[in-house]
Amino acid sequence: MSNLKNALLLFIMPFMVFAQTKKDTIRVFYLGGQSNMQGFGYVKELPDSLNKSNKNVFIYQGNPVGDNDVAGGLGKWDFLKPGHGTGFESDGKNNMLSDRFGIELSFAKKLQELYPNQKLAIIKYARNGSSIDSSGTAYFGSWEPNFRSGKGINQYDYFLKTVNDAMAMKDINGDGVEDILIPSGIIWMQGESDADKSELIANQYYSNLKRLMELMQAAFRNNDLPIVIGKISDSGDDVDGKIWAYGELVQYGQEKFAAMEPHVSIVRTTSTYKYTDKYHYKSDGYIDLGKEFAKSIFLLNK
Question: How far lies 138's CA from each of 4, 134, 135, 142, in Å?
Fold first, then answer.
């Protein structure tokens, strides 16, 4: 009888070991920037194919706030669904969805087509009106890594908190299987708030962007992590025909960054989008932008 038990144990042990060591590998993408990344699309205008919960894609969105607010970056993993646009909030225990969306829905849907057999996840932290340069940012906040004003906490710190807390979770979907998150790209849509203050700030955009992106790559422990940026555009809805006084200088910095730096590409379709106000795209613009970002990051990874 003892020999039978030993033989049975030897037969079962490999299956026990396999069950204990099984892990899920999940590609994770970071979405960051200012309001046109945070998202001003209307959920009520979504097509049926996007206006639903996506149980195969997970999202961790950090709570977006102004500088020096200790609630910045709080979040929790959840299934991707509409409502992660402007107005979204999180206290770290509950996510409060809004009636707006950003690029995340169409971005995820396109990625599922491009990576049909892989699990996907999104980490998002974006803040309306935020600039990289800290000069004159006032209420909206800046991404300046060496920020010293007030409590010395800003958008860069909220980015780090969002990413570190999201990446620290061992089972993001609660299925009892450990998840291995593989950083697969940075998607950045920002620059308008560095284009409306001064010629000096706009001229520094390339160096400011380069430094920030290198630090973001380092936060994901991959100095070659692919980056796709979205080129800013101008609605022209002002008396002089320009919203961003120094927009061309920031656009030049964006093009220079995409041309000079490795593993970087730029999406330019933003110039064709229509606007709901002076600053924000219509809903179909966010849908198209998400698809373009997905195609670009897929090609860089490929």
Answer: 75, 9, 8, 9
